[in-house]
Amino acid sequence: MIRVNVSIASLSAERFWDNRKPAPNIQINTNINVVSVDKKAEDLLDVPFVLTINYNPSVAQISMKGSANVQGEKLELEKILEEYGQKKPPAQVILQSISNVVFTESILISRVLGIPPPIPLPAIPEQGKTAEMTKPAGETTAHNPAAQKVLHFFTVFMAPQILSASALFFDVTLTTTIPWFG
Predict the structure, then answer these.
(1) Mean pLDDT of the chain
(2) CATH code for the part of the protein at 3-114+138-166
(3) 158-174 per-position pLDDT tens digit
(4) N or C, where is the chain less crowded by C-beta within 10 Å?
């Protein structure tokens, strides 16, 4: 069984847009890069990563650097190293663990900065209409599995905590563009 422990070593976040101005239509680009997969011990791999979140127009930017310590049986870790050497993406459990941590932190950071979170939030429907997520014309969440996973994670795990607090590829690059309408 693989166990992943994700830690963030460096964090940078900045809002460029004056919060007194009305918010423009914003497009959010999220990019997670797995830099390498390094064997640290017989039962331990180190997987450094970099997250960048850019807002377009240039409203804000968030960057994180960290690493995932992956523990498991020798054969499992050798398979991960071998696949990395063949330029295959890391195991799903590694990417999911990294994504869960960095998106959780980026949601909290975006709240502190007063900028839209880097994930699509469900829209509250008008009375008499069915619930539907705001999305660009011609694209649905059903066509974007990454957006589905992030939205599910947020609604199941993060929304209750935030609400209670307030009241792939080699050099794996996952790029998701999420529109936000202000």
Answers:
(1) 77
(2) 3.10.420
(3) 444 433 333 233 344 44
(4) N
Q: Give me 40's structure tokens.
A: 């640290």
Alpha carbons 58 and 90: distance in angstroms, whole number: 31
Q: How far apart are CA 116 and CA 108, in angstroms?
A: 10
Residue 66 or residue 142, greater confidence: 66
Give the C-alpha separation, 180 to 118, whole Å: 9
Q: What is the pLDDT of residues 113-156, one digit of tens each?
A: 988 898 865 666 666 655 444 444 444 444 455 555 555 555 55
